[in-house]
Structure formats: C-alpha cells, structure tokens
Amino acid sequence: MIEKVNPCHPDKLADRIAGAIVDLAYTKNENPKVAVEVLLGHGKCHVIIETSEEFTNTEINNIVKRIAGKNIELDLNVVPQDKHLADNQSEEFKCGDNGIFKGVPLTHEE
Q1: Total-model pTM
Q2: CB neighbour list of residue 47: distance below 8 Å, 6 or more residues apart
Q3: What rounded mean pLDDT belongs to the chain?
C-alpha cells in the first residue's frame, strides 16, 4: 500500500526533509551510514539522525526552513551510528528498514 496525501501534508514534508538530509550525507561521503526520522507538525520539526557523518545545526536548520517554512522550530538530535549496526553493515549493503530505494520496484510486476 502507498500512502497518498497532499504534497504539502506534514508527512510528505517530513519525507522530503529526511531525503534532503540523506542527500547531504552523500555530499560528505560516498558511502555514508545515515538513518533519519522526522516528525513535523504544530510549528515544530523534530529530527533524529543516527549517522557516521557530522552535521551542523545550521545545515539541518537550512534544510528544514527551505522545505517546511521559516517559522518552524527545529528540535535536532544527532547521534553516532550504533556500533552493532555499523558492524552489521561493514562488509555488504543491507537494508535496515523497509524504505524504498532508487531502482527498487514496488510490485512484482515492476
């Protein structure tokens, strides 16, 4: 099932923010390890990033303001990638979530 909501719905804006943060990680490293959770609503944007990369508050705040608007208050928590997960990903690519990745079909027919 695919969720269909207005492009300006907070869920869609949160997805765009998370995607922009992942894109930022790829500008810092060819093979970053990054997981992003974004909750957006009621004038606040909560962002949790577990990553091998370093981000500044300014970088993330700029992304949030560009996508969600200038009046959004950012609550940011950036933590290092979990050692167990990092070790699990060290030798080959493994998906740690049920996200959709570029080039991955949504149905068997695709």
Answers
A1: 0.75
A2: 17, 21, 36, 37, 38, 60, 64, 74, 75, 76, 77
A3: 83
